[in-house]
Write a structure and sequence with these properties.
The protein is α/β, with parallel strands linked by helices and 410 residues long. It is built from 12 helices and 19 strands. The chain has a 4-stranded mixed sheet with strand order 17-18-1-19, with no helix packed on it. The chain has a 4-stranded mixed sheet with strand order 2-11-13-12. It has a 4-stranded mixed sheet with strand order 3-4-6-5, with helices on one face. Helix 1 packs parallel to helix 2.
């Protein structure tokens, strides 16, 4: 399936647009809530594929767990199932079977988990024999994915000796680790993070009522729209200034791209702002907020803003190789991006001719669809292929995008 999208409107964009609840918070809370033994429902859970998969896995009687394309669920449930009595098989889509998980498996094995590879060494599917684990000290490469670390953290209070996690080679996405820590402690855990060591004592979780806040990553597409179009005011509800979501840095990033952010009335107001005294090349390290990279890269290209972005190493093991996907799809619009070194992306202003009859491929990646759609606000109509992929994190994206006056989706 493809959507043809076009925009015909001469006035300013204004209005309230609904966001999904935070997937990052939802999936962490679901695991911790299950470990607490609570029968309480979590309020305002994210309505998306990733969270639906997690709910199904935690409530099903089946010992075969198929998480589809949900990478977060694969990592979190691998650790979770390793301490649940019984024999489990966890699998996923073909792409999931190509996404490495050896770093997490090695760490879990080192503290006593019984996990085997069902097909290819280092990759899902996995066979897990869940059992009681002692815990203690564990080392893990912290530079690849914070989800491996969060997966270990969340089961740690249930281990006999708790866990001391020694992070090697630096730490990727520190805010996501802090987010996990914050939620764990809300449920009664005794956990701390200092230097390269996370220490979690064997203090069991306590059941509590929990309400999930809106998703800052989902908000990024509205910041992008504010940067690319004529905007009067965009209001996004249930976003908070003191958020523990790492992508709450959006306001800072987009202040360099002509968007002002005001926290008011339980949400955020976005307005157009003048860009002043900015360097010729916009530089940003995305090590703590990699999910924002696609949105910001596309925005900068369309604004003809040269950039050099770093901290993008994890993009290659996401739903697709996002660095390559960005290069391929932006080239269709005439932008030539380079990767000067591992985990970086650069645009020096170099352009080529646009493709005729533009068609954007999404690579089964929800963020590709949502990061590219706003280009139409300052471009001729084009096609978006497999637009339904947005269901992974923002099922109502096209409904909300279509609320913009002048947008036509068919």
């Amino acid at each position: 399936m493809s959507y043809k999208i076009e925009y015909n409107h001469k006035g300013c964009i204004s209005g309230r647009f609904e966001l999904p609840a935070s997937k990052s918070i939802s999936n962490r809370v679901l695991i911790i809530n299950a470990l607490s033994g609570s029968n309480k429902n979590v309020a305002n859970l994210a309505k998306c594929d990733d969270t639906d998969v997690m709910v199904k896995a935690l409530t099903s009687d089946s010992h075969l767990v198929d998480i589809g394309a949900a990478g977060t669920s694969m990592r979190f449930l691998t650790a979770y199932l390793s301490i649940q009595p019984g024999e489990w098989t966890i699998t996923g889509s073909q792409r999931m079977k190509e996404r490495p998980i050896q770093i997490l498996v090695d760490a879990l094995r080192s503290i006593g988990a019984d996990i085997e590879y069902a097909e290819n060494e280092g990759f899902p599917p996995l066979k897990i024999r869940g059992k009681e684990i002692e815990g203690g000290d564990v080392e893990i490469d912290g530079s690849v994915s914070s989800q491996y670390i969060s997966a270990l953290m969340m089961i740690a209070p249930m281990l006999k000796k708790g866990l001391r996690i020694h992070l090697l080679n630096g730490v990727a996405s520190v805010p996501y680790i802090n987010l996990t820590l914050w939620i764990m402690n809300q449920f009664g855990a005794d956990a701390s993070f200092s230097g390269n060591i996370i220490e979690i004592k064997p203090t069991k979780y306590k059941p509590i009522d929990y309400t999930v806040e809106s998703d800052w990553t989902g908000a990024s597409y509205w910041f992008q729209i504010a940067a690319l179009a004529d905007v009067d005011e965009i209001f996004l509800p249930a976003l908070f200034e003191n958020t523990m979501q790492g992508d709450g840095v959006l306001g800072d990033i987009f202040s360099h791209l002509g968007v002002s952010t005001e926290f008011v009335d339980g949400g955020v107001k976005l307005r157009k702002d003048e860009i002043k005294d900015e360097p010729d090349v916009f530089e940003w390290d995305f090590i703590d907020c990699p999910d924002l990279a696609q949105t910001v890269v596309v925005t900068c290209c369309v604004l003809n803003r040269k950039f050099r972005f770093t901290g993008l190493k994890s993009l290659k093991i996401k739903e697709t190789n996002r660095i390559l996907a960005l290069q391929q799809e932006l080239k269709k619009f005439g932008y030539i991006l380079t990767e000067p070194e591992e985990g970086s992306l650069e645009w020096n202003g170099k352009k080529c001719d646009e493709d005729a009859n533009l068609s954007v491929d999404t690579y089964k990646d929800h963020r590709m669809a949502m990061a590219f759609a706003p280009i139409v606000l300052c471009h001729a109509p084009f096609l978006v292929n497999e637009p339904e992929v947005v269901s992974k994190s923002y099922p109502d994206y096209w409904k909300e995008f279509g609320k913009i006056e002048g947008i036509r989706i068919e």
